[in-house]
Every structure is written in structure tokens, then in C-alpha cells.
Task: structure prediction
Amino acid sequence: KFSWKDREVDLTLAKEDHANVLASFAAFQEKVRDYTRGCLRIEAEVVTVKEPLTRFSGTESFFPNATDLPYDFSKIERGKYDSVFAYTLCGSSKGEIPRAMLGGTYGGDVGPAGAGYSAILYLEGDLAPRTGECELHEWLHQVDWMFASVQGWPGELFPDPDSGRTEDDARPG
Result:
């Protein structure tokens, strides 16, 4: 449940949406493997948080910061993970929470346990046709942050994921 302005928004994750989240992330893993010709593979540990999300950061549009999630990230050893992805249901036919974006990312300097953090915001049934491109886009922001902030590389050396290229433009071969 989430209070917003003059109403209560009450959303429940459907089983098919949970399956679609997993399928969308698996498509992202496959894209990373394909686009790097097998040099990179994403290994994932999936945690389903059963406690309800009860708040979002923001005033007019909303984004789930890691501190909004009902999960204790202090249990994670710092540096254990490179990336954390959080999928958040933001609306359905019952009412929509105004999203700040479809996905958002920040680097490990402020991410949970030193990991980059990406939130994927979606509407009920929204993930069924997903191809993992949203996850790839957000993950590339994490990689960009790592090269610039951790490795000290000039930002111009890594392409900006917001530059407008599409999946077909980036396909190898």
C-alpha cells in the first residue's frame, strides 16, 4: 500500500509478473553474454522481498531508492555484489503511482553495500514483452560509473547509454 495525495494505492504482484521479472532479467543476462561474445556473464542471486513496499522517494513523481526497499542491505558484506537490481510494481488499472522514469541507476558510492543500484519501475503486465534492454541500459550506467569513479577513466571513453542507440544498432557481427 502506498499513500499518494488523496488516495491509497494498493497493488499486489501477480505470479505472472514475478515470472516476467525473472524472464526479463534472464534476457538481460543473455544480451550481456551475446554482446561481449561470451567474455562477460552475469551471475545472479535472486531475492524476492515479500514485505510490501510502503514508500517511494520523491514528491511529484517517485523512484524507489534502496533505502525505500523493505530489505536490510546491512546484512550484505560490502563489496560482495557489483550490482543490485530492484523491480518495483508502480501501477495497474486500479491506479498508477507517477514514476520518475522507467528505470534509474546510481553508482556504488551510494549504492547498497557498495554495489551499483538500478531500479526498474513497471506497470502490471508491462514486463511480458520485455527483452532485457531496460536492464542492459541501466547496467551500462553502472559500468560507466565504475570506469569513471573507480578506475578514473575519462567519461568520454565509455559511450553514454542515454545516447539513443537501440538494441539492433548494438548487435555484434
User: Anything to note?
Assistant: The longest helix spans residues 15-35. The chain has a mean pLDDT of 82. Strands lie at 2-4, 7-9, 83-92, 95-96, 103-106, 116-123. DSSP finds three helices and six strands in the chain.
